[in-house]
Amino acid sequence: MKKLVLILSLLLLTACASAPENGREVTSDNSTGDSLKIGPDTAEVELSQDIMNFRTSDTEELKSENRVIKTYEEFEDYINDYAILDNPFFIDEESLNKLQKVDEAYFEKQGFVAVVLVVSSGSTKVSGENYIVKNEIIETFISSIEAQMGTTDIATRHVLFVVDKEDLDKITEVKVTFSLK
């Protein structure tokens, strides 16, 4: 009898865990607790090769912000504001090569959404997972792994999402959703 109850319980749990038929439900951690349905009118992108994660030098002003970068001039401002290419010590080679190749022609087809975070430790890992564009809002999903030991060297982390121009042109708001691991 116990085996039958166990099997039925497992079947019930499996059925409850299946995804909805008309899109995937993503629970956001906003204050209302609402969920966001992803359906045919919502673009979901999971392009890890189009997300750059890096740290910048801590000699510059430490500030958290979100930026929608639609033009080469805005990109140059972003690069200069954080001295990203001046001291690329913390940037992986692949991301650095991609950043160095960005020119005016790049913005004919795409642009960036930059999420800049000040974290309490340089050992804290931050990485972009994906994003969803719905109407004028882009919701970025970022995971964070806190440092295990108590270090206090504050660091600036950047998550740079590559976004198609069509979606980028309509974005007026950036929402950031975190998951802690």
Task: Write structural notes for this entry.
The protein is α+β, with helices and mostly antiparallel strands. Helices cover 22% and strands 38% of the residues. The protein has 4 helices and 10 strands, in the order H-E-E-E-E-E-H-H-E-E-E-E-H-E. It has helices at residues 2-17, 72-81, 93-101, 165-168, and strands at residues 24-27, 35-38, 43-45, 51-56, 65-69, 110-119, 125-134, 137-145, 155-164, 173-180. The chain starts with a helix and ends with a strand.
Radius of gyration: 20 Å
In the sheet with the most strands, the strands line up as 3-7-8-10
Give the end-to-end Cα distance, rounded to a whole number of Å. Answer: 38 Å
* Proportion of strand residues: 35-45%
Q: Unreliable runs, pLDDT <50, ≥5 residues?
A: 2-6, 8-49
Shape: globular
| DSSP, total strands | 10
Helix share, percent: 10-25%
Which structural class do the helices and strands define? Answer: alpha+beta
Task: Name the features.
4-stranded mixed sheet, 10 strands, 181 residues, alpha+beta, disordered N terminus, globular, 38% strand
Would you spell out the secondary-structure blueprint of this structure?
Layout: H1 2-17, E1 24-27, E2 35-38, E3 43-45, E4 51-56, E5 65-69, H2 72-81, H3 93-101, E6 110-119, E7 125-134, E8 137-145, E9 155-164, H4 165-168, E10 173-180
Parallel strand pairs: 8-10
Antiparallel strand pairs: 1-2, 3-7, 4-9, 5-6, 6-9, 7-8
What is shown here, in short?
With 181 residues, this protein is an alpha+beta fold. The chain contains four helices and ten strands.
